[in-house]
Amino acid sequence: MISRDCPICAVPLEQETYEGFPLWRCPECQGTLLDLSRYEAIKNVPEKSLADLEAEAQAGFQGDNPQPIRCPRCRLAMAKRPLPVPGFEHLHFDLCRNCSFVWLDGGELALAQLAYQATPAFRDKQEMKRRAAERDADPERKAAFDEAVAKLPEPPGIFAGAFREALIDALFTYRGRYGTRL
Q1: Which domain holds residue 102?
Q2: Cα(89)–Cα(110) distance, rounded to whole angstroms?
Q3: Does residue 154 lie within any of the structural domains?
Q4: pTM of the predicted model, to two decimals?
Q5: How far apart, in whole angstroms, are the C-alpha atoms of residue 56 and residue 37?
Q6: 140-160 pLDDT, tens digit each
Q7: Rounded to whole angstroms, how far apart are CA atoms 58 and 92?
Q8: First vs last C-alpha separation in the chain
Q9: C-alpha distances out from residue 64 to 11, 83, 113, 117, 172, Å
Q10: Is 49 part of any domain?
Q11: Beta strand pairing status for 101-104 and 92-95?
Q12: Are 62 and 106 contacting, i.e. CB atoms less than 8 angstroms apart?
């Protein structure tokens, strides 16, 4: 593994697993380095309780670092991007456009998760999961649901009509070009 140093403290980052995803964390400032796709996935994962996320945010948050920083991987300057968290103005994360790595100051990852969990989309998703679990817990209700789904008409293939049209066009083009009878 390549050694990565904290862009704030200059101490080696420690690899750990967070919400099932690997990332690097600074043992001094609690800052976090991770891939952009993992950041997007982690902030949408509701495995940690709200109380755990709040405790993590309070313990690690020391304020947003306004200074430009360099990517711990490629050493290029990272771009400041807004981190939309209600109640916190001017909060940013740092994004390396070259590596697609994200740097979050201490506690900001937990704040991002809390912000997502406060959205209507998250609450709707949780309600759908609750309803599905309720349905699956009742064998009669589950059987009735499965039976109703089985009765739904099969949707036509997404490409069926378009493929048929393209094939006919290709055949007529071929016939017109080469004068061949089909």
Answers
A1: 14-118
A2: 16
A3: no
A4: 0.69
A5: 22
A6: 988 888 888 888 887 666 566
A7: 17
A8: 62
A9: 19, 10, 16, 21, 64
A10: yes
A11: antiparallel
A12: yes
